[in-house]
Amino acid sequence: MRELGVSSEVFPSESPIDALRHARGVIISGGPSSVYDQSSPTMDPAVLAAGIPTLGICYGQQLITQLLGGEVRKGDKGEFGLAFLDLCVNDSALFAGLTDHQKIWMSHRDMVAVPPTGFRILASTSTCSTAAIEDAARGIFGVQFHPEVVHTTEGARILENFLFSICGCAKDWNPANRIALVEDQIRERAGDRSVFFFVSGGVDSTVAFTLCLEALGSERVCGVYVDTGLMREGETDFVEETFAALGHGVVNIERAEEEFLGPLEGVYEPELKRHIIGEQFVKVQERIMAARGLADGSWILGQGTIYPDTIESGGSSRDKSKAATIKTHHNRVPGIQKLMEQGLIVEPLADFYKDEVREIGREMGLSAALLDRHPFPGPGLAIRCLCSSEEHAVTRFSEGWLVPVHSVGVQGDSRSYAPVLAIDTFPSAAARLQDEATELVNRSVGVNRVMACVAAREPLSQQKVFSSYITHGRLALLRRADGIVREMSFKAGFDKHVWQFPVILIPLGSGESRDSVVLRPIYSVDGMTADSVTMPDDLLRAMATRLLEITEIAGVYYDLTHKPPGTIEWE
Ligand code: XMP
After folding, report:
1. 321 falls in which pLDDT band (50, 70, 90)?
2. Is residue 46 pLDDT above 90, yes or no?
């Protein structure tokens, strides 16, 4: 909706009508559940009686049907992917201006068998006789297909019809125009208090921090950059220079390496790492605030949280069971949640997607060098330095080798934590192994990621996974490898072709070389889904050669997994 220029917010499906009275229209989205399952998401039926134009998409259409007394049942067969829509009426406002035969995208098994009383059928496909329904008098519409995906050729037109002619919305959403409003919100939340802000040098926290500065003035905003010991090479210097150049003069550098590395000793489980780091941030914050006399209730904490962070931490639904926790972001740990409940947190960007944040930053005059930086996760290198509590052998597994280093994935909207499948040869980039890798993951029960060996000192059969944790030495090794990859990628101009390029250290090797490096260049728009990107062969070979000059590194691998089924980060 925002891409079409209309202000929109995502609400939990069960939101009571009172939370929605201000809306010009309501869209009930699709989802993987069946309306007949006990635990399926539902909605307040009063929303459908409130006279607010409503559009149900896929599951949304089925839910509306069920709540209004129609009938939903399992179709004789599923309908997944490309389909053709035939309109059976020519006077529906939803399809105004559209031809009566068009390409759409379907993904369903359940379907509306009998529409509720008062509804008429607008369109069908060869498999689904109720591909679109409406009760124009009540302003309620439903489509079984997905107008929101690019594969539905006229999808945007259908949504525009809903927004502009049915709901009467105005085209007034433009993130850059929101700045004044966001600044008002910051002033309102802060009241007469000031804001204490952790900045990371990344886009989100810098933009959020700058918004607070503009809203409250430098007297009332204090920024601290914490060197957690988990940052990339040269990062602290970059941050020092950037904020000095921005002329803010209100950002201080705090060195707190031991406070983070100490509690991470002996920890290998990713969620535990994330919790420890999040909680340490809270402790460091309390310590700094106490030391500076800021803990007297006159300060609140600012965060650069953006919308996807909230969704993936399971925060888009009040009922935690509905939106699965994929990864707990460091700014959604319990300590922070508690502060949120007390109204002690301000998150100016919590409603925005990354591309919108960049637009806001541009409008505020922040430099492209800063705004175009690849995202870097809050927990830093800790979640790229994989650990293992035990020693494990590498074993033969279907079409490759099972490497028992566990990584996080997202499969069927929920989290998986599984070993990685390694292919021991790396044909040329032209082979585009990524698509095969996805199929391989789908076929192979119990793995969520596939990597190919670019170069290694020993064949995989001779290697093993070492018992290994986060240590100064391993962090230094990862920092060095990451620095090499970043520099080569920048020089070759490859960094412009990727959205993010994590470099991961895994405890796989032999003899004295006990770690391997995984390259994970991906392309994404908002981090929610991502494609593994193909790198030019010569750059890849040159990188592997440079990396293998380091004796501790046993091999260099390439992550071929898209998201889903893998996530961008390994933990
Ligand atoms: P995943 O690994 O979930 O990552 O596919 C999606 C995007 O989010 C970044 N990421 C984080 N960012 N705090 C952050 O600020 C976090 O805890 C965190 N974890 C993942 C990740 O780098 C990618 O861009």
Report:
1. very low
2. yes
By CB atoms closer than 10 A (0-12, 13-18, 19+), residue 276 is: buried
- My answer on whether 328 and 392 are in the same domain is no
Note whether 219 and 325 are same-domain residues: yes
Last residue of a domain, one of 347, 377, 407: 377
Spacing, Cα 51 to ligand 1 middle (Å): 40
Same domain, 465 and 532: yes
Q: 485 is written with which tokens?
A: 């990859």
Q: How many residues does the chain have?
A: 571
Query: Would you call 77 exposed, middle or buried from its count of C-beta atoms within 10 A (0-12, 13-18, 19+)?
Result: exposed
271 is catalytic: no
Residue 501's pLDDT band (cuts 50, 70, 90)? very high
**pLDDT (0 to 100) of residue 327:** 65
Do both 364 and 318 map to the same domain? yes
Q: What is the pLDDT of residue 142?
A: 98
* Residue 197 included in any domain: yes
Residue 6 has pLDDT above 70, yes or no: yes
Active site residue 58: yes
Asked if the structure places residue 223 within a domain, the reply is: yes
On whether both 191 and 155 belong to a single domain, the answer is no
Ligand 1 lining (C-beta closer than 6 Å): 309, 312, 326-327, 329-330, 375, 377-379, 500, 527, 563, 567-569
- Residue range 242-253: mean pLDDT, rounded: 78
Coil, strand or helix: which one is 513?
strand
Buried b (16+ CB within 10 A) or exposed e, 375-402: bbbbbbbbbbbbbbeeebebeebeebbb
Whether residue 456 is contained in a domain is answered as: yes
Quick: pLDDT tens for 206-225. Answer: 999 999 999 999 899 989 99
